[in-house]
Design goal:
The structure is a homotetramer of 425-residue chains. Chain A contains nine helices and 15 strands. With 425 residues, the first copy, chain A, is of the alpha+beta class. The first copy, chain A, has a four-stranded mixed β-sheet with strand order 13-12-11-14. In chain A, a hairpin with a 2-residue loop joins strand 6 and strand 7. Chain A is globular, with a radius of gyration of 22 Å. The two termini of chain A are 37 Å apart. Chains in contact: A-B, A-D, B-C, C-D. At the A-D interface, strand 3, helix 7 and strand 11 of A face strand 3, helix 7 and strand 11 of D.
Amino acid sequence: MSFSRESLGSSYLAVRQQSLDICEPLEIEDYLVQPMDDASPPKWHLAHVTWFFETFLLKPFVRGYQVYDDAYEVLFNSYYNGVGEQYPRSKRGLLSRPTLDEVLEYRRHVDEHMLRLIDSDIDQDQQFRIALGLHHEQQHQELLFTDIKYNLGNNPLCPPYRSNGADNNYRQTSQPLNFVEYEGGIFKIGVPTDSISGLNFAFDNESPRHDILVRDFAISDRLITNGEFLEFIEDGGYQRPELWLSDAWSMLKARSDENIPSPLYWFKKDSEWFEYTLDGVERLAMNKPVCHVSGYEAEAFASWKGMRLPTEQEWEVMAGDADVVGNFVDSGALHPEPVSFPDKGVRQVFGDVWEWTQSSYGPYPGFKPFAGALGEYNGKFMANQLVLRGGSCVTPASHIRRTYRNFFYPEDCWQFTGIRLASVD
Amino acid sequence: MSFSRESLGSSYLAVRQQSLDICEPLEIEDYLVQPMDDASPPKWHLAHVTWFFETFLLKPFVRGYQVYDDAYEVLFNSYYNGVGEQYPRSKRGLLSRPTLDEVLEYRRHVDEHMLRLIDSDIDQDQQFRIALGLHHEQQHQELLFTDIKYNLGNNPLCPPYRSNGADNNYRQTSQPLNFVEYEGGIFKIGVPTDSISGLNFAFDNESPRHDILVRDFAISDRLITNGEFLEFIEDGGYQRPELWLSDAWSMLKARSDENIPSPLYWFKKDSEWFEYTLDGVERLAMNKPVCHVSGYEAEAFASWKGMRLPTEQEWEVMAGDADVVGNFVDSGALHPEPVSFPDKGVRQVFGDVWEWTQSSYGPYPGFKPFAGALGEYNGKFMANQLVLRGGSCVTPASHIRRTYRNFFYPEDCWQFTGIRLASVD
Amino acid sequence: MSFSRESLGSSYLAVRQQSLDICEPLEIEDYLVQPMDDASPPKWHLAHVTWFFETFLLKPFVRGYQVYDDAYEVLFNSYYNGVGEQYPRSKRGLLSRPTLDEVLEYRRHVDEHMLRLIDSDIDQDQQFRIALGLHHEQQHQELLFTDIKYNLGNNPLCPPYRSNGADNNYRQTSQPLNFVEYEGGIFKIGVPTDSISGLNFAFDNESPRHDILVRDFAISDRLITNGEFLEFIEDGGYQRPELWLSDAWSMLKARSDENIPSPLYWFKKDSEWFEYTLDGVERLAMNKPVCHVSGYEAEAFASWKGMRLPTEQEWEVMAGDADVVGNFVDSGALHPEPVSFPDKGVRQVFGDVWEWTQSSYGPYPGFKPFAGALGEYNGKFMANQLVLRGGSCVTPASHIRRTYRNFFYPEDCWQFTGIRLASVD
Amino acid sequence: MSFSRESLGSSYLAVRQQSLDICEPLEIEDYLVQPMDDASPPKWHLAHVTWFFETFLLKPFVRGYQVYDDAYEVLFNSYYNGVGEQYPRSKRGLLSRPTLDEVLEYRRHVDEHMLRLIDSDIDQDQQFRIALGLHHEQQHQELLFTDIKYNLGNNPLCPPYRSNGADNNYRQTSQPLNFVEYEGGIFKIGVPTDSISGLNFAFDNESPRHDILVRDFAISDRLITNGEFLEFIEDGGYQRPELWLSDAWSMLKARSDENIPSPLYWFKKDSEWFEYTLDGVERLAMNKPVCHVSGYEAEAFASWKGMRLPTEQEWEVMAGDADVVGNFVDSGALHPEPVSFPDKGVRQVFGDVWEWTQSSYGPYPGFKPFAGALGEYNGKFMANQLVLRGGSCVTPASHIRRTYRNFFYPEDCWQFTGIRLASVD
C-alpha cells in the first residue's frame, strides 16, 4: 500500500476502522481468549496496534504528549526490547482488565492525537512511520482472522465466525495439475533500498533489490487441492518416515492425541471428511486449495509427489510483473477458492493461501534493518523460519506486494498456508 | 446447613441467587479468565453447579426431561468419571462459548425445572441430593471468591473486586499469643453415619462418628498474624532449609521468579509491605491473621517457632461444643479480621481463615462414600492432601460445621488459609 | 540390629563387606548407571555410605583428620543441607569419575580410620553414630538390589543379576485367603525414646512409644499373590476409574507408553505373562506374592476386592510380639516366596515384600528428630509419603524391627512392595 | 578421503584402529556416559559404526551372513527408519550391557567379515558403501572427541583426557584482524554428481556442482580469538538484546544457571578466566581462536562488530583451490592454535574450528539423496540447521574437502566451532 499525503488521514481512519469491523461479529468473551501462545486475544491485538502508534509516533513527536497509561506500555509491547519490558506473551489471555471498553477508549484517544499529528507538518520519517503503523495494523488484521478462527475452531461447540450459508459443491474435483516452465538466468528481486521512504512503503526485509541466479525450473500452475492432499493421507503419508524431515517426524511421533493426522481444522466423522471454516463446519471441498498445512506437511507432500517446494527466488521470478490480484480479504470469501478462470499460465499466485517456499528466512545481501527499536520489526526473526509468498484470503489487497516476504516456523499451521510445487529436475 | 422441607424452595432460590450476587461486581471479561489450572473461570463455576442439579436430580428423577445441551454434559462435568467424559480442566478458560448470557439462560432453565421438582412429592434420597447440590454450590461460592481474587490480584493493574474505602489501621500489633491447655483422653469426633439423611446434611467424609485417643495438648488462643509471619521472613525463614520439609524445600528452590518469597498477594515496595485484598492493594496490617499461606509455609513457620501444627483430632476437641460463629462471608469483610473480643479461651476458631492441620486427609475408620457417581465427591481425593478446619471469611456461615473437613494439597495457597499453632511437648 | 561394644569392629567390617558382596556379580559398567532419578548408581551408593562415616564420625571426632577429597563432600552428600551443597541427584549417573577403583580406595581409607576410631575410647554419642552409619549402609544395601534390578530389568537384553537356575513351578495357585480377627482396644506402639542410645539402635521416627486406640479389625493371613493380582487386571482393573484415587487415575491416564498396564517387571508375550527377577526373566508364578506394585495399585486392588489397606497401627498390633523371622536377604532367594508353612494365623508378616499401609508418614506424638544435621535423616520427609512395614526379601534380617517404619511415595514401585488387605467393617 | 582399491583393506583397518586409539586414554566408566542427549557414549559410537558396516554391507552382500545379535539392530541404529526401530537416543547412557568387552568382540567379528568381503570381488556400489562407512566412522571419531570432552569437562573433577603439559603462553595477543576482498561474479561450487562413485567419495549433500552468483565481499583473514570474544563479554554482549536473534535471546533468558554467560568450557575464578581443554583446565589463551561458540553466539558477536557471518557460498569461493592443510587431528594439538605463519591472505581456512556460516542447511539445486535407507544420511536434516565449513582440530585430515558441508543447530556449541567474519557492505 502506498498512500498519498492528502488522503493520509482518511487512509488512517479506514485502516483503523477495518480492525473494528473484523471484530464486529464477536461476543465480548471472544475478544479475550488466547487458545495457544501464538494466537493472541483480539482485544490484545486492538490495543497493541494502538500502542504502536502511541510509542513510535505520539511519544517521540508530539510535544507534551502524556502516555495514556504507564501499565499499557508493558502490557501491549509485543517484543520491542528497545522500548522496554514486555508482559509475558503466554499470559495475554489472562488480562480481563483493561476491559474491551477501556481498550476501545484507548483507541479513540490515540486516534484523536494521531489525526492531529497527521494534519500537522510531518516530515518524511514521520510519514514513513505512519505508513509502517498502518501496514503493521494490516498484518494484525490478518492475525485477527487466524486467531479468531483458532479459538472458535477449537471450541467444542464449533461456532461459526459468521453465517454465510454458502453453497458448497464439495464433490467437484479440480482440473489437472500442469507445470509451467521458466528459463533460468540472472534476475532482479526485491525492492531498492532508497525507494523505501515516506509514504512509499516496503519492509526492510524486501531490500536491497539484487541480482539472483536461477536455474531452469517448472512450477505448478495452481495450488494443491484438498482432494490431492487427501490422496496423500490415504496413501499413508503421515505414517511414512521417508517422506518427512527428521525434525518433522520427531514432532509427529511426539503428538499424543488420538486424532487421525490431517491438516488443522479437518476431521473425519462417519467416514466423511469435514473442515471448520469461518462460516462453520463444512464438508471438505475437494477442489479448494488445501489450507492450514505446516511447512513440514507441505514438504512431505512434495516428497510424496516426487517434487519439491519452490525457492522464494523462483516464486518471485514466477510472479514476474503480473498484477497483484487474487482472492484477498476484500473478496469476502475468507477461505481459499477453487481455480475458476480458464487462463493459461500460473494462477492463484496472489491470495487464497500463503505459499510455503523451501527458502529459509534470511537477510538479502546488503540487508540493513530499520533504525532504532523499529529495527526489531523483521531482522531479529531471521532464524529457523521459512519464507512464504503471495498473501492469503485474509490479507488486505492493499497490503501485499510481489516482493513481500512473510515468514513462519515450519511447524506453524494456524495461518492460511498452502502448497505450490516445483518439479525436481 | 439443614433445611426445612417447607422452605426448601426458597432456600434453593436464595443459594442460587447468592452465586449471582457474588459475581455482580465483575466485568464480562472477568467471568472467563482461568489464571491457573486450579482457579476456574466464574462462568464455568456458574454452569458447573447448574450441571450438578441437572445431572443428579433432573436427569434421573424428572420424567421426560430433555438434556439442555449435550455438549454441556462434557464441558461442565468437573471430575465425575461415573457420569462421563470431561473437558480438560486446564482449558476451561478457553471457552468463550457458551457466552455468559447463554450460561445464565441455562441456569434459568434448570432453576425452573428444579423448583417444579421441589414442589412435587420427593423422597428422602431426592431431598438429600438437593441438600448436597446446595452445599456443593456454597463450596463453589467460596471458590468464586478465591478464583476471582487470584485473577484480579495477579493482573498488573491490581483492580479491586469492590471498593470499600475501609480504614486500615495497619501498624497496630496484636495481643500476645497464649496457649490453652487441654487434657488428653478418649473423645468422640465426626458425625454419625445414620444421621446423614434427607435434609439433615453432612458430607460422607465426616462420618462415622468414632472414638479417638488424644494426648494432653496446648493450642494457641488465636491465629498467627501478619506481623508474626513477617518476623519469620525477616529472620531468613525462607532461606533456611532446616525449617522446611524436603518436598517444600525442593519446590522453593525450583521457583524461578525473582520476587522476595512471601505469602501470596504480599509484595514489598520502597521498603514497605503491601497486600492485595478484595478491596484492592492495602498496607499490610500487622494485627490481622496471616492468610494465603500454603501448608508448607504453615509447617515451616511452626518449626521456626519450635512448635507444630495441630492434628485435626485436636482441632475438633478444641472446637468442643462452641457455637459456630465467626467472621464468615456473611460479615461482609471478605478478609480475616484481628482478634477483637476480650474473652478468655481459644478465639477465631471459626471463620477468618481455614486452619492447616498436620493431618493427612484420609478416611475415618469405617468410612463409606456416598453411593454411585456421587461417591466421587470426597473419597477419591484421600491422597496427598492435608485437612483444614474451621471455615474462612468467604465461607457461608450456613455451610460450615464443627466436624467439617476441608482438604487441599500442602503447596496450595490461593485459598484463605492460615495458621494456628500447637506446642511441642 | 543391636551391636555389642566388643564386636563392633567386626560388625563394622561385616556390614561394609556385605555391600561389596552384593555388587560382586556386576560388570564395571553396571556400577555407573542411573536408570531413573530415584535409582542411584551402585558406585554412588558405595561412596555415599562411606561419606556418611567420614562426615559424621571422622571429621568431627578424629583429631587432625584430613578430608579425603574436598570434591567428594559435595558429590556424595545425598540431601544433608546442614552439611553443605549437594551434586544434583539426577546427574549421579554422569559421574564416570571418580572411577570404581577410586571409590574402592576411598572406602579402604575410611575403613582404616573408622577401625582405629572404633578401637579408641568412644562415647555413647559416637557409638550411636556408628550404629546409625551401619543401619544407614544396610538401607543402601537394599537400595543396591532395587536399583540394580531397575537397571538390568529395563535393559532390552534383560541380563540376570545372577543365574540361579531355580525351578519355577509357576502354575501352582495359592491356598485361600483368610482373615484373622483382632479385637480393638488401647495398645502401645513404637520405641521408647530413651531406649535409643549408644549401640541400642532404632530410628527417631519410631519413637516415642505411645498409646493408640484401635477398633476391631480383620486382616488377611497372607500376602496377595500374582495370581490374585492377575484377576484384577483381567477384570479391567486398570481401566476402571472408580477403583482409583484421583491422583492415581490422572497419573495412569498421562502414561503414554503402549504396554498393557501391569506391575513393574511384568510383561505379556504370546499370551503368557512373564516377570523379570534378579535371576532373569521367568514365567509369572501364580502363587508368589505380587511385588513392585505402587501404593496406588495396592489401594486400587483393595478397592476392587471391597476391602482396604491396613493402617500402620493395625499392622503393628498384628505383628504383636512375634519373632522377626521371614524371607529376608539372608535366605538368598532375592524374591518373595509362596506361603509354605501350614500354621494358623497371620504369615509372611516379615520379609518377602514391604507392605503398603494406608497411613501417611507423619510424626508420632511427641516426635523429636535426631540432633543437628542427622535430624534430616527422617523428619523432613514427613509429607506426601505412605508408611510401609515388615521388610522385604532384600532387607538384611538384622536391620528390621517390629516398629520399623519405611516410607515411599504412593506412586513408587521399584522397591519390593506388596499387599496385605484389611476387611472393611 | 579417496581410497585405492589395492589398499582398501589396510585403509579399513587403519580407520577402524583410529577409533580405538582415540578411546585408549579412557577408563571403562568413561565409555558409558551420555552427559546430554546429543553426546552419545563412546561405547555406543564404537558399536554404531560397526552396526553401519554390518547393516549396509554384510547383511545385503554376504551370502549366509548371520546377524551378530538381533537386539543390536535396534540398540545401535541411530536414526535409519528405513532399517527399522531405534532404541531411544536419550537412553543410550543407560545401556550398561552390552559391556565394552562385548562391543569390542562385536567389532572384531564384523571386521573379520568385512576384510573377507573387501578381499572378494566387490562392485562399484559395494566399494562406495565401504568408503561411506569409513567416512561415517571418521565423523564419529570427531564426535568421540567432542562427546568425551563434554563428559569430562562437565565432571566437577575436571579430569584431563590426556596430560600434555603444554606450555600455554596465554597472555599473548593476536595480530590485527584484516579483511581480504573478493570480487563478485559467477562461480562454481560443489561436487559433480557423477564424480561420486566407487572409492571416489563425497557426500550427496555436496552435489550437484552448480553455478552461484556472489557479490563483492570481504572476509577476515583469520579466526576470531578468545581475546576478541572476551571484549564482547566485557562490553555486556550477553546482556544486550539488540545484538541477538529473537530465538537466541529467548533461550538466553530462559537459562536458569547462575554462571556468567560465556562460551562453553570457559569459567572465571578469582577474576581470571580459564578454559577446559582435552589437556585439562588452562588459563584462557588470548591469541587462540575462540571455540565452542554456538551459531547464535557467533551471530551476536558479528552484530556487535557491525559485521556478519559469511555465507557458505562466499566461504567456498574464499577457500578457492588452496591446499587442504591445517590444524587437524593429525597434528595432535586437539585444540585450535594461534595463527602462526606470516603469509598474506586468508589463513586458518581448514582445521582449528568449524566456521559458522549464515547459510541454512538446504539442498543444492538438483540435489538427489543417496538411494534407499542411506538417503537418510543427510537429506532429512535439511531444516533448522546452519552450514559450517572447514573442519576442526579433531577432524581427520583425510576426511575433509573444500566442498564439505557440516551442519548443526544454531544453539549447538559442544563441537569445536568458531567464528570468521564478513564485512557488511
